Structures are given as C-alpha cells and as structure tokens.
Structures
1.
Amino acid sequence: MPESAIAEPIPAATLVVFRDRPDGPSDLLIVERARAMVFAGGALVFPGGRIDPADHALARLTAPDDPYAAGRIAAIRETIEEAGLPVGLSPMPDVATLAAIRAALHAGTAFAAALHDHAIRLDLAALTPFARWCPRHRHMRIFDTLFFLAALPDGSPEPIVDATENSRVLWASAQQVLDDADAGKVSIIFPTRRNLERLALFTSHADAVADTRSRELRTVTPWAETRDGIEYLCIPDDLGYPVTAEAMSDTRRG
C-alpha cells in the first residue's frame, strides 16, 4: 500500500488526571471504551477526543500565544463530557453547575457558550503537556494526540461515566492497570501501555510534572523493526519511557 494510503491524522487531546494519595502512588482517571466503538473498543484509556474547530476558535480568544491551548481546551471539555470532572475550570463549579455544563455539551451547546452561561473561566495552566503521539501505520483512523497532566481539584465530585462512548470510569494506579492488562483482565492499546509505564515511575502529580518539564516534548511515532527474527513495535529511547519496544504479536494498536 502506498504511503499516500495512510490516513491524515486527526488532532486529538487526552487528559491524565492524578488523584494523589498520602499512602502510595497516585490514582489515575481511566475510562473503558464501549466495545462498539471503532477506535479502541473495549480498551481502557484516558478521557479525551478530537480537537474541534470550536476548540481552536476559543483558544484564539483566550490564549492566542499558547500553541497547546486548543489541545488543553479539548482535553478539559472531553473530561467533562466523559467523566463529569471539573479540571481546568475557574472558579470550580458546584455539582449542579457542573451537571448543567455537561448536559449542555451533550446537547450540542458550544463549550464557550456553556462556560459563559455559568460565568466559568478556563484555567489552561492547570494542564501540563506530557507527550504527543502520532502513529503512521495503515489504519482506518490515526490520531495525532496531545497528552496532558492535571491534578484533581480539591472538592471534585466522583466521576460519572457518560454511558455512550464509554462503559465504565474508574480510579486506578498506573501499575494496577498494567498488572490487570498483563493478567488478561483488561485491554490496553500500545500508546496507553507505554504512557502507563512512564506514569508508573511517579508517585505524585508534582513528580510527574517535574520530570515532564525537564524533557523535550517530541512527537512519538512508533515504527516496526525486526530483531532476531521477531518484529517489534518501537519508540525512541530518549523520551523518558522505560519500555521502548514490544513484540508486534503482543501489541494492540486500536
């Protein structure tokens, strides 16, 4: 298949929400994709989705000099839609206001309008750029995805699954998700596994942010490589990922 047959990447953003614990590693917000979804059906992922034109429009109004603004906005919006959590909002809305904003988004109201109606502003600085992944394999859909880190705001409600794109929402440490995947209890795709392995190195949101800010944010594009007769899917070894190759037969790409 010629290179031209590779689909144009779809800009997307996802949010890794940390719920720090005093007695162990942070819990992370995880959603389970509905099995009927074309992309990553049945897999555990972080909340996220496409960066829409309206996200770019709002970014130009609120943070024109921030190259990650549209991604930050999309990650905040998707986390509200998928899990009902108020990350990146100021002031933090009460439960009723948050539910109203979420309902408005589900009904098709523009994010900017939903925020304006309730006198809520965006706090884009609450999100730290963590990674960018853009596969180039021949696939129906390819996402150019920005990953962001954020701490769960104090006083946040419990997450509530949207029951449309996702079937379950949960808190779990990065290592717990990896262990469950290795035990065959859950499914995770290749980018999620690599990012969970990296996140498992940190005990708190602050630790993850400090390490992330010390590194270059460079797009990760996995490639295939044959080693000792076995085909591996590989990523660069200088971006903070503890595992940089996995046998192709063991991977799930989406």
2.
Amino acid sequence: MTANALLPVVRTVAEVRAVVRDWKRQGLTVGMVPTMGALHEGHLTLVREAARRADRVVASNFVNPTQFAPHEDLSRYPRRQEEDARLLAGAGCHMMFAPAADEMYPEQFATSIAVAGPALGLEGDFRPQMFGGVALVVTKLFNQVQPDLAIFGEKDYQQLMVIRRFVRDLDLPIEIVAAPTERDAAGLALSSRNEYLSEGQLAVARRLNQILAEAAEAAAAGRPLPGVERDAYSAILKAGFERIDYVAVRQAEDLSVFRDGVVDGPARILAAAWLGKTRLIDNRAV
C-alpha cells in the first residue's frame, strides 16, 4: 500500500481484498465508485453518495484498455492519480484502488464477456468493443472489492443499463445505485473529455443539453418520435457540432424502441456528437 497525504492507495488485488476483508470483519458496509480517473465534480458527487449510503468507500482509478478501440483516445486519456487521490479524500473516500494494466490483465489473460440487451444499438453500434470491455472490468472490480453497493452516474445512461443487466444476469450481490448527471452552470454534462475542448468548442457543447431538453419536451407532448429525432439532429448540427453518431428516444428501462413511434411510458433521449476529435454524449429524461 502506498499513501497519498490523505488517502491510502492500493495497487494490487491482494491488498484491496485484505483491507475490505478487515472492514467487513468489523461489520462495516462497503460502497464502490468505479472510475477511469481524471476526476471532476461529477465523480465526487458519486463518492459523496456512496459515503452517505455505506460505512466505507472504495474508488477505483483505472483507464481500462479493453473498452477502447485501437483508433480511440486510450493513449491521451487524461491521467493524474495524485490529484485524483486528493480530491477523493476531500469527498469522503476511504481508499483508492489504482491497479496497473498487468495487474488487471496479466499475461495470457484470455477471458471476455459478451453482452446484449441494452448493450445493442446506440453506443453499441459506434463503439462495438465498449460494453464487453466495461462488463469485463466492472465484473473484475466487483469480484476484487466485493462491495455492497456501487454508484454510477446517469450521464453514461446506456452503460448504467448494461451494468444493471449483467449484475442481475450474473446474480452479483451488489446494489447498483444511479446518480443524476452533474452539469456545469450552463447545463453541459461534466466529463473528463471536456478538457479536450477549446473555449469555442465548449460554447457549442453547451447547446447539446438545451437541444435535448427541447426534444424531450416535444416527445413527452406526444409528437411522433421520428420527427423529434430528426429535428434534434438538425439542431445539433446547426449549433456547430461537426457530425452526429445518433439521436434517439428509447424506453428508459431497457433502451428498446417505442413500437408505435410515440412515447407511451418512461423514456430517455440520448445523443452522441463530435466536436473536432472529441466525442460527447448526453441524455435527458422524457
């Protein structure tokens, strides 16, 4: 175990298991917040929620290579573990688990997880490797830490649905808690990738939330969804985004399509769009 000035940092599975085992011997509950580091206020809100619900909180800090395609931003994804540890300590975290890649995926690692259901479509169409990689690393983290509950943000809504599904399907004894998306004063969803954006791009990015909110109102009013999606698509391009992967209204529980083309129950509108080399995602409840 190494130590930040305020927060213990463990780097091996054996270490994290030993600490958590000792906590559980004392009758303490354990919450977990899986992250890829480069922490911002959105992550810290998840940590605070975990601290509210559990006696001890573990935050993982691991940029997971199995969810990145070769052309994606794995190599440039921001990494600053010392600063992350300081922020976690201030948010009420009790331990940061920051393994190296070869600790998580040792030589001759040969296992994968296939996911379907809510993993199909949307992000699954444009990042087909992502959810298998997420399912693999989150399952490993849950096995390593064995938390009683884990907190995930609604900003990555499809990921949240996928995690809920495989936790249920694999009978993992962990409560999955959703936390609302944290936004800046203009409504931009907080993301580690926002730091890639220039000031001009940030001004454009802040329009995405507004456009989705307007589209959500139209969908909730009963407007046919093809028109809602088409108008939102046009508005996102007009705002200055360079290309769009998807804009879609789906059923909130499982991200399936509304068969009659209108909202008749809880729904989400989800979008992914590009500014330069930066891909942003967001969603709103309908």
3.
Amino acid sequence: MHVLVTGAAGFIGSSLTLKLLEENHHVTGIDNLNDYYDVSLKLARLDRFKNHKNFHFEKFDISDREGMSALFERSSFDAVVNLAAQAGVRHSIENPQTYVDSNLCGFVNILEGCRHTKVGHLVYASSSSVYGSNARLPFSEHDNVDHPISLYAATKKANELIAHSYSHLYRIPTTGLRFFTVYGPWGRPDMALFRFARGILADQPIPVFNRGQMIRDFTYIDDIVEGIVTVLGSPATPCDNWSGESPDPATSNAPYRIYNIGNARPVELLRYIEVLEKELRKKAQLDLLPMQDGDVPATTADVSELKKHFDYTPSTSVEDGVSRFVEWYKSYYGE
C-alpha cells in the first residue's frame, strides 16, 4: 500500500513508519516539526529511515487546508494513519487554540482529503482521555464518553464524532484507536517515564501526582504499532445489527469503528517507578503532589473487542518495556 502517516517524526508516527517500511509498504510522512519538545529528537527519529527508497517526507502542517488538499490530489493514498496532533493534557489547559488548529481543523482537512480522493481506510489516534469522568473500570468502547475533563480529551472525542459523520455521509471507512499511556524507546520527553528517568539520573526530585495513588494501563510502543498495522489492513465496515434505538458508541450502520489499545494489565504508578529505579540502579526522590487538573486517578482498558475482531492483545510487560526504554535512553543520551 501507499500510506500517508501524519506526525511521522513523532513517537508513535516514526515507529509506525519504520514498521510499514519493513513490511515493504510505501510511506509518505508529514510533520510540522514544531518545538513543543526537542526538535533534534524528532529529526533523529526520521534519520532511522529518511533514506529508505520507499519513504518520502514533507515538512507540513495538517492545519494547512490548501496544502493538504494538494498533497492528497497528487499522491493517491491507499490508506491514511493520522497521528499528527497537539499532544499533552496539561498543555491544553494553557494553550487551547493550538489544539483547535491541529486536532480539529487539521483533522477535518485529512477527512476532506480522504473524501475527495476516495482513500480506502482512515485510521486515527484517539485517546483513553476521552473516558474523562467515567468511573467504571475497565473502560469499554461501548460506554458513553460525553464528559471529557480536558480540552485535549474533548478534541479527541470530537475527532470520533466528526469521523462518524464522514463515514455516514461519504462512506469513508474510519477506525479510531484509543491509545492507553504509550511508552518506550524514542518516546516524548514530556511524558512520565522520560521525565522520571531524567530526574533520577540527575539526582533531582521527580513530580508524582496524586501522591502516587495513580493506576495506568501502560502500553509499550511496539504493541501499539502492531495494533495499528493489524487494523490498517481491515477497513471498518458497518455493523449489521446496529440499532438507533439502543445505539452502540463503538460501532455504527456506517463503516466506522472504535477500539481500545491498552495493555489490559494496569500498574500502580509507584510500581512503575520501582521498575525504573531497578533498571537505572538508582533510587528516586519523590515529590508527592496533589492531582492535577485534567487528570484521572485510574485508566484500564477493556481490549476484548480488539481480541475478538483481530485476535490481537498487547502483551509486553512493564518490566520488559521499561528495560528496553532504559537501554535506549542510555544509548541515545550517552548516560
């Protein structure tokens, strides 16, 4: 296939691009290379495959309506994976307009491109953050998610709604994947594992919110990528028994699907830190802080739908995943 990967210099986007190239697909990657975090890390990710014969890169912002339209018209994509977005729950509280431009306007530009060039399948990144105030665990795609508690989460929920309208009106197969706390080599410096490793090695206190009383469904990057590739090859189809009298949020009578991708083995935050301490052979200094706005105390994924439809379940343990991250971190930063 010829696949467009947006956010190709990002954590998940670069890892997915590498996997698609290994499987002999042709990939066009776009990224605006913004300075939300260290641009040199983004460039280093691209260096892993920038000279691959099946890879083409363009520095591009998905919020550029005319540019996106031209890209789709000249490229003839078989499938699109949208991983470009302004990330970060806490950042969205102080910089809301950035999220509107990228996560909403940019997403519509992608859908318009898919519509006008008849792309066979759009897979896009949603997030476990859409579950917001939901308290029932594990989180299920079949539950209502109308109470996001951050703008970031609201934009991801909006993506799902907008995708459904395009699937319904124009019969574009769309699949939304709700990622649960992705971590691993080449990760984002603003995420917990990265910040914890940096702080521990520098003998600095690490911020631990809700005083450590947090549970997360930490999901290793390779498991996420494998899930995307698996889903990408099976365009969404209408659900034959979908009913408007009892509507299921995860399916539709349109070619539209939503799936969780999580490890389904939730881990306490303090245990996560213990594993990191063991791998770094150094104790952490904990700065125990209250819960932050926009955050939730626990996330756990019900991945039974992913298992049922694709016979796929993420499987990397936190112990193995953190070990691989530390190996990469020390190599990359020369620690």
